[in-house]
Specification:
The protein is built from seven helices and ten strands. By secondary structure, it is α+β, with helices and mostly antiparallel strands.
Length: 345
């Protein structure tokens, strides 16, 4: 097994994971509010979307809610959602050409991931909102989580021609997650050992993925040919037992139920709405404690779902019912034992 190789960001504080503050520092302005924003992105987007293999960036502007035009570079990102066969419009990375001015909602930002609408059909907006809601629910469990900010984006092509307006959301950068929690962002090699993971944080991560029926993740390895980790950012102190996985990308979950989402071939389920716990067996004890946390925080998590702007009541109710069955199983001793029975390793 490849030894763990961490590169700690120089400006981050290398403190033990257990020493993370009970109340995290406030986030940057963009993620300090849940109020949706409206922005405009103007760039040669049709050109960018026509070549999904393009690894470069195109220049344009992002106009913030106050009307300030911020020069930026826009590039494609993602794996499945990057492909034209899956998405009409790929996710974007926004790289600001210079620091956004003080007073802008983007003040303090440098590089941002923007989750876009994927399909141009208006109905697909509900999928975007459900994925956004998953981030808000995880925020109710821990500050060691990724913030998201909902945005209506008016897309304009480079020649000034309006393209469309759709809901998307920005994701907090891992460096800011680490800063808020007085920890360090870190990168690992191809694979890490389970004993490097913080047991309570790894258990929380695994149970949340079970709750929303997401199986498209790994806290220990990246996709084939890539570095660690798959749909997990890592923060911590670089010490054994102190590495905290932070989940992201929930579009393959049963909660979202995207039409392109497929179940893994090797875990014994036939569709993404089915659940199979994939946490590691060595964290089963802290998973029991984490399940109690889920039961306690259930009302707050369901409120976060219900408060998602633009979510259709039928979509909301169906999602709440889907989550409730897993919450009920976690709250039952025999039910929780049945969940943990399929632990890995």
């Amino acid at each position: 097994m490849t030894a763990l190789r961490f590169i700690l960001t120089a400006c981050a504080l290398a403190v033990a994971a257990a020493a993370a503050p009970a109340i995290a520092a406030p986030p940057e302005a963009l993620f300090a509010s849940d109020e949706p924003i409206r922005i405009t992105i103007q760039a040669p987007l049709k050109q960018l979307m026509s070549d999904r293999a393009f690894r470069g960036a195109v220049a344009g502007t992002l106009t913030d809610p106050a009307g300030a035009k911020l020069p930026a570079q826009f590039s494609l990102r993602g794996i499945t959602r990057r492909t034209a066969e899956v998405c009409d419009f790929a996710p974007l990375r926004v790289d600001f050409a210079g620091p956004p001015p003080t007073g802008s909602v983007f003040s303090g930002q440098n590089k941002l991931k923007l989750v876009t609408h994927c399909k141009t059909s208006p109905g697909f907006q509900q999928k975007v909102l459900l994925e956004y809601a998953a981030y808000k629910m995880y925020n109710q469990l821990t500050e060691r989580s990724m913030r998201a900010r909902l945005a209506t984006v008016d897309y304009i092509d480079g020649d000034g021609r309006p393209l469309l307006s759709r809901v998307g959301f920005f994701l907090e950068d891992v460096r800011d997650i680490a800063r808020r929690n007085e920890l360090a962002p870190m990168r690992a090699g191809v694979r890490i050992a389970t004993n490097w993971l913080s047991p309570p944080d790894a258990a929380r991560y695994a149970l949340f993925q079970h709750l929303i029926a997401n199986h498209d993740w790994s806290m220990r390895a990246g996709p084939v040919g890539d570095k660690c980790c798959h749909n997990a950012e890592l923060i911590g102190s670089g010490a054994p037992g102190a590495v905290i996985p932070v989940p992201y990308d929930f579009d393959f979950s049963g909660l979202v139920d995207a039409p392109y989402a497929t179940a893994p071939d090797d875990i014994g389920i036939s569709n993404v709405r089915q659940r199979r716990y994939r946490g590691y067996c060595v964290i089963s004890a802290p998973a029991v404690a984490s399940a109690a946390e889920f039961t306690q925080r259930k009302p707050a998590m369901l409120r976060a779902l219900a408060a998602t702007p633009g979510l259709d009541p039928r979509t909301r109710d169906r999602a709440a019912s889907y989550l409730d069955s897993a919450f009920a199983q976690m709250a039952s001793g025999p039910g929780l034992a049945a969940i943990l029975k399929t632990c890995v390793g």
